């Protein structure tokens, strides 16, 4: 019987307490969550610091740096699926994931530090070549670490709700890393350093050490689920490279990707507008005044994400992942449409209200979509007989990263379409400012509507997940 034929009533009463075999200790959850610091740092710290370092300090053209960011995402599109396939097929005494997690974290930390130690007195072309070369190696190390790390999280527990708790720790630690990344440039400007270049070199060493320390923790302290001899045999026979691409045939996974893509597209096509609306509409061109509100808003966002994650896990346990996610998406929809009234020159600080509504919504998205993907791996195993956490993790991460890259690429053209002209400073036309504010509110709203529809169509309820898990356990007893 395929998962689609389970025939279970999703309204049946279920036991919310995970069985003992599905429990993951708090120590193990902390170990897995620690890896998310390295995951977020490797994904975002380079792009966060590339312009201040290579453009402002070393005169590399910003257009070249933007092109490089797109190339890195294309490289991810090639390497992520390959790494997922390699990890799924690996057979070693240390497991399918842990050796790669440790190796990728160590290489990633070293390469992150090395990136900022280019020789001085060279041409911008040399610096761009240095940035490209080290970054390609760095993002390869990130793939070696990141894809097995995500896959390991999917297989830590077979329990429906315990998976959400595991992913909650991951999301919380991602927010910790996001909070820290915001202050990297500030650290480089301290008086103890001789300018941005010198500051970033030493900050890079420190941050690279953090990547290594936090990244190796899950690889050292977590145990992997051992596959039976029959499962190993099935994997060898069925997990050809085509099996990686075939995850797109798994319908519940497509609903997850659809929700993620629509939410990302709506939000990140116009995310840069927050800067311009604050500087040129709310503060009339006063950049120092705007920077204070922007800094406070970013800090409040990450703090609110961290504070809301236990609430997301609790609501999910009580109401199920689908209902919980729809509730938090609805709150985010209210938050984004409220920008029309809360971004105002009369009271700039009112915009923080939007943060308190948006942050829990996106925390729920990252936490619950990842947990739902773990449920999909069970659904897929019942249907196809293989464990493909690596393949699902690879394409989940690849879709997210490609979505971000395309949004950042297109957003500049949308900004030009509004009529924005940097040469005008605080004298932008009212039509331009109104267009920016309308797009900043409505595009994320429409993206969240799309995400809501995809989540509504997602078929794996708690009852269905438990039935699938029961059938898998019964199958293993007969092997």
In short, what is this structure?
Its main location: membrane. This protein is an all-alpha fold and about 475 residues long.
Explain what you see.
By secondary structure, this protein is mostly helical. It has helices at 26-57, 62-89, 98-115, 124-154, 160-181, 184-188, 195-221, 229-238, 242-245, 251-268, 273-282, 287-319, 321-337, 339-342, 352-384, 389-417, 430-457, 462-478. The protein folds into 2 domains: 24-226, Up-down Bundle (Growth Hormone, Chain: A), CATH 1.20.1250; 247-479, MFS general substrate transporter like domains (Growth Hormone, Chain: A), CATH 1.20.1250. It has 18 helices and no strands. It is globular, with a radius of gyration of 23 Å.
What keywords describe this structure?
479 residues; Growth Hormone, Chain: A; 18 helices
């Amino acid at each position: 019987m395929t998962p689609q034929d389970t025939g279970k009533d999703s309204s049946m009463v279920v036991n919310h307490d995970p069985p003992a075999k599905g429990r993951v200790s708090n120590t193990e959850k902390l170990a897995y969550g620690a890896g998310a610091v390295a995951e977020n740092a490797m994904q975002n710290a380079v792009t966060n610091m590339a312009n201040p370092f290579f453009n402002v300090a070393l005169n590399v053209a910003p257009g070249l740096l933007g092109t490089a960011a797109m190339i890195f995402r294309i490289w991810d599109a090639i390497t992520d699926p390959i790494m997922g396939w390699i990890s799924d097929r690996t057979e070693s005494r240390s497991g399918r994931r842990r050796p790669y997690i440790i190796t990728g974290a160590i290489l990633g930390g070293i390469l992150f530090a090395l990136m900022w130690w280019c020789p001085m007195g060279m041409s911008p072309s040399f610096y761009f070549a240095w940035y490209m070369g080290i970054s390609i190696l760095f993002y390869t190390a990130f793939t070696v670490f990141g894809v097995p790390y995500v896959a390991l999280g999917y297989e830590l527990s077979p329990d429906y709700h315990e998976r959400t708790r595991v992913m909650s720790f991951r999301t919380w630690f991602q927010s910790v890393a996001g909070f820290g990344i915001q202050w990297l440039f500030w650290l480089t400007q301290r008086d103890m350093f001789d300018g941005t270049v010198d500051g970033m070199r030493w900050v890079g060493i420190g941050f690279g050490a953090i990547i290594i320390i936090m990244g190796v923790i899950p690889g050292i302290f977590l145990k992997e689920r051992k596959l039976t001899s029959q499962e190993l045999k099935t994997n060898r026979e069925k997990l050809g490279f085509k099996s990686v691409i075939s995850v797109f045939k798994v319908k519940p996974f497509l609903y997850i990707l659809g929700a993620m893509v629509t939410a990302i597209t709506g939000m990140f096509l116009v995310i840069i507008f927050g800067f311009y609306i604050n500087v040129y509409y709310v503060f009339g061109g006063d950049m120092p005044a705007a920077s204070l509100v922007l800094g406070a808003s970013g800090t409040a966002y990450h703090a609110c994400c961290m504070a809301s994650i236990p609430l997301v896990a609790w609501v999910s346990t009580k109401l199920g992942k689908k209902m919980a996610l729809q509730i938090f998406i609805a709150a985010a929809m209210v938050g984004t449409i409220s920008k029309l009234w809360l971004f105002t020159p009369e009271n700039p600080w009112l915009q923080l209200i939007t943060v308190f509504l948006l942050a829990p919504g996106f925390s729920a998205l990252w936490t619950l979509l990842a947990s739902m993907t773990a449920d999909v791996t069970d659904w897929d195993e019942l249907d196809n007989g293989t464990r493909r956490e690596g393949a699902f993790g690879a394409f989940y991460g690849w879709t997210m990263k490609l979505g971000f890259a395309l949004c950042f690429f297109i957003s500049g053209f949308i900004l030009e379409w509004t009529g924005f002209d940097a040469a005008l400073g605080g004298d932008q036309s009212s039509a331009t400012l109104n267009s920016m504010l309308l797009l900043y509110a409505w595009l994320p709203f429409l993206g969240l509507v799309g995400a809501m529809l995809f989540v509504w169509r997602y078929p794996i309820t708690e009852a269905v997940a438990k039935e699938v898990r029961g059938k898998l356990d019964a199958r293993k007893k007969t092997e």
